[in-house]
Write a structure and sequence with these properties.
Elements: E1 5-8, E2 11-14, E3 18-21, H1 22-25, E4 26-30, H2 36-39, E5 44-48, E6 53-54, E7 57-58, E8 64-67, H3 70-76, E9 82-86, E10 94-97, E11 105-106, E12 110-115, H4 122-135, H5 153-158, E13 160-163, H6 166-207, E14 214-217, E15 220-223, E16 227-230, E17 236-239, E18 248-249, E19 254-257, E20 277-278, E21 293-296, E22 308-310, E23 317-319, E24 323-327, H7 336-343, H8 346-355, H9 366-371, E25 373-376, H10 380-419, H11 425-435
Parallel strand pairs: 5-11, 19-23
Antiparallel strand pairs: 1-2, 3-13, 4-12, 5-8, 6-7, 9-10, 9-12, 14-15, 16-25, 17-24, 18-20, 19-20, 21-22, 21-24
Helix pairs in contact: 4-10, 6-10, 6-11
């Protein structure tokens, strides 16, 4: 049976779908202003800030508190199935409140949306905003744009929504939630395996693999045969090149490798749509080769300083000034894979942080990195065995990351196609269940 579409200001939708304003579907309430005055009082209650709200997810690990009067409690207490939408920052970012905490409230940079009738599924509402703000860009330019972009209550109220019949809303929400759960499962595997690697690294770097007695050293307990040396005893670190920003483009043949290409725990991270390409003249000595070992010399985000990664491809990545390249490595004494794990060990990160400079953004230098004292096994064989034991966890993380990225791509595709009725719920349900 063919579907008849109708035209609206936000696109073409099936005739059975209703197009209405947000305030016809949800009751909108803004939260309480955070101020010194409003923090005073005996009725201190937890409340959510924008930093607690992510797309379809709430982070409740750190909640702020302030005083709420009895009248404010009645007006602002969160109830299950309330939507929380960000006024500023990532405008429109929305998550669902599931009643995780009793007597919880929210600040004025969040809008609370409560279903005005049973004709809207709240979880569908979250996914609609995700589509409209992030994927379809339906609301581009509708926020108030001053020095700080924001989405006022009046602007939010007038936004149009496309609403399928309730049963179809529920089906769409179920399908998308199935994919989201698959993404969350991969995130749990990544987190668990990353913690496992940290524990394994600590054990291997203090006990080794040979079951030998330990000795106390300046850096703590290590196997008796291991030697404590300055890290840079067996290699040099080459500074990167200051590539001119006027030649940065969204597409090109050469990728500027930056600290953004590093995971905090070490290893290469693909930048996807944040990738910077360089289109100017390139000094040949700053084109990286596959399996070059590079180190983050600038802390672009917390925990990144000293992180090491191998270059994934030959002749495509450029060595910029924020990275150090390991050169002149004495491979008769130090295994490169083992060295990468030293850089990514908790001990080295702590030592690097101690000597870093910079107030807002921390930096280190080749001299400071090479001066860190570490313990080394006496043979390349043991170094290789330890690196091999750790690479198993790396591979498990890499598999989970690849699956997570696959599910994220699937989610965006299905979100777009369901919200535009390019595919219908009965067409996608079985295929999604097979993929996840």
């Amino acid at each position: 049976m063919s579907v008849v579409f109708k035209t609206s200001e936000i696109g073409n939708f099936p005739e059975t779908w209703r197009i209405d304003r947000v305030d016809a579907v949800f009751e909108i309430q803004q939260g309480k202003q955070v101020s010194k005055k409003n923090r005073i009082g005996d009725n201190q209650r937890p409340f959510l800030r924008t930093r607690n709200v992510f797309w379809n997810r709430l982070d409740l690990s750190q909640l702020d508190r302030m005083n709420f009067t009895e009248a404010e409690e009645l007006r602002l207490e969160l109830q299950p199935n309330d939507l929380l939408t960000c006024e500023g920052g990532d405008i429109g970012r929305t998550a669902l409140w599931n009643g995780n905490i009793t007597d919880c409230y929210y600040q004025n940079h969040l809008h609370r949306l409560r279903a005005a009738s049973e004709q809207v599924n709240p979880q569908f509402g979250v996914y609609w905003f995700w589509y409209a703000f992030q994927v379809g860009k339906l609301y581009f330019g509708r926020g108030n744009v001053t020095t700080i972009p924001n989405l006022s209550r009046s602007k939010l109220a007038e936004l149009p929504m496309a609403l399928p019949p309730l049963f179809e809303q529920q089906k769409i929400a179920q399908i998308l939630s199935t994919v989201q759960r698959a993404i969350e499962e991969q995130e749990r595997i990544i987190q668990t395996t990353t913690e496992l690697k940290k524990a394994l690294m600590q054990k291997l770097f203090t006990e080794g693999l040979r079951g030998e007695p330990q000795k106390q050293t300046e850096i703590g307990l290590v196997p008796e045969s291991w030697e404590v040396v300055a890290l840079g005893s067996f290699f040099q670190i080459k500074h990167g090149y200051a590539f001119d920003g006027k030649f940065f483009e969204p597409l090109g043949d050469f990728i500027l490798m930056t600290p953004g290409h590093f995971n905090e725990e070490g290893g290469f991270r693909d930048q996807d749509d944040k990738t910077k390409y360089f289109t100017g003249d390139i000094p040949e000595s700053y084109i990286l080769e596959k399996d070059d070992l590079v180190v983050a010399m600038t802390e672009q985000k917390s925990g990144l300083l000293g992180s090491a990664a191998f270059v994934p491809e030959h002749g495509r990545y450029l060595h910029n000034q924020r990275l150090g390249l390991i050169v002149n490595l004495d491979t008769t004494r130090l295994n490169k894979r083992f060295l990468s794990n030293i850089f990514n060990s908790p001990h080295l990160r702590v030592e690097v942080a101690k000597t870093s400079t910079g107030s807002k953004v921390k930096h280190t230098s080749p001299t400071k990195l090479r001066a860190v004292r570490v313990a080394l096994p006496p043979t390349l064989e043991e170094q290789e065995d330890i690196a091999g034991a750790l690479v198993i966890t790396d591979r498990k993380v890499a598999v989970a990351v690849a699956k997570k990225e696959q599910f994220q791509a699937l989610f965006r595709t299905i979100l777009h196609e369901l919200m535009t009725a390019k595919i219908r719920v009965d067409e996608v349900e079985l295929s999604v269940l097979k993929e996840v």
